[in-house]
Amino acid sequence: MMELKGVLPAVRSMKDFDKILESSQEHIILLETRLSQIDSMVKYAKQRNKKVLVHVDLIQGLKADEYGIEYLIRVAKVDGLISTRNNVISYAKKKNVTSIQRLFALDSHALEHNIKIINTMRPDYIEILPGVVPGLIQEVYEKTGIPVIAGGLIRNKEDVQSAFENGAQAITTSQVELWDFTTAKTK
């Protein structure tokens, strides 16, 4: 399992992808891309010594079944998978690829239900959305023992700092101006 900490750039466009390739960031999270772009994006990123995590649920043209996940791991050679789907997390774990289970904190019932599933699946990381809810990060960590990543609605440096202060190991954001934010305390 790779260690994820600090601010993790989440890329939504080719313009942002080009920016992150030129940065000192070690990790790239690919969001909202097309299956036809994955191979070349991963190849370019690896040429720049970047680790690539993909949000499986947002890849257009990919069926998130065993064969689609196998393609991402064996052919595209991604370093990690992010998903809300248990089958994706299970397959990533079987193939020793970093797994990040996305958890949407909609209400108390959904939170408790997702924590039960996560305690069964045991992903490498949990990404909580929205990542700006005080106290939720620590609660999820205490109930699972799995490192927490805060994502969603992280809009400014104060949101980043607050997430770290509330126990997040890492932050995901598509806000380009936050990608180099390094003054936050990280575990």
Give a brief description.
It comes from Bacillus seohaeanensis. This is Glycerol uptake operon antiterminator regulatory protein. This protein has 187 residues and is of the alpha/beta class.
What does this structure look like?
This protein has an eight-stranded parallel β-barrel, surrounded by six helices. 39% of the residues lie in helices and 21% in strands. By secondary structure, the chain is α/β, with parallel strands linked by helices. It has one domain (6-178): TIM Barrel (Alpha-Beta Barrel), CATH 3.20.20.70. The longest helix has 14 residues, at 108-121. It has seven helices and eight strands. β3, α3 (66-75) and β4 form a beta-alpha-beta unit. α3 crosses α4. It holds the Pfam family G3P_antiterm. This is Glycerol uptake operon antiterminator regulatory protein. Keywords: Glycerol metabolism, RNA-binding, Transcription, Transcription regulation. Regulates expression of the glpD operon. In the presence of glycerol 3-phosphate (G3P) causes antitermination of transcription of glpD at the inverted repeat of the leader region to enhance its transcription. Binds and stabilizes glpD leader mRNA.
